[in-house]
Amino acid sequence: MEHIRTFYSNTIDTPQGEVIVEGPVLPENLDKMYFHEDLASFRPAKQQQEAIFEIAKLPEGRIIVCRQGNLIVGYTTFVYPDPLERWSEGNMENLIELGAIEVINDFRGAGLGKAMLRLSMLDDAMEDYIVITTEYYWHWDLKRTGLSVWDYRKVMEKMMQAGGLEYYATDDPEISSHPANCLMARIGSRVDQESIEQFDRLRFANRIMY
């Protein structure tokens, strides 16, 4: 499922200067930028940039960035769920995952995460998708922020709500393994009822039906 990617851009004032929030960024434009070395929550910055570049080339892939000049200080990815996750089992063309969202520490608290999510949902094409995110506490930067698990969860929920994502219950084993973990989703206004029901079956795949 592929749509024409409508490009959006916004400028955010931060204590560290103006930051441009924009996307979806095309691969040829992303290739002219470089990642800040502190964007290393998932893998070293250079390797992460290579991974993001590959996502940008996918038909469904969407990359939103925060940048100062050509320096990327934050990014968000949208891509089909990992084939090893239950969310891919339905082979739903209209279900994509907010796979990663990262902002360097110097810009934490400047609202860049919310700004990226708001901008990503400006695209009318997103009304055709169910957008999900799976939040696991072991991915959270608890040490650097000094927040408790529950305070960090509140921060994450508020940020996701800026993009219209809401809490959804699920029996997924990984999410259910800790009460702070959660599934959040945004169901686009043009998503059909059959797709919503299929999403419900994925959420409760372990439920025995009689």
UniProtKB/TrEMBL annotation:
A Gene Ontology molecular function term for this protein is:
acyltransferase activity, transferring groups other than amino-acyl groups
Q: Which Pfam families match?
A: Acetyltransf_1
Q: Where is each N-acetyltransferase domain found? A: 38-119
Superkingdom assignment? Bacteria
Q: Which GO terms describe its biological process?
A: acetoin catabolic process
What's this protein's name? Acetoin utilization protein AcuA
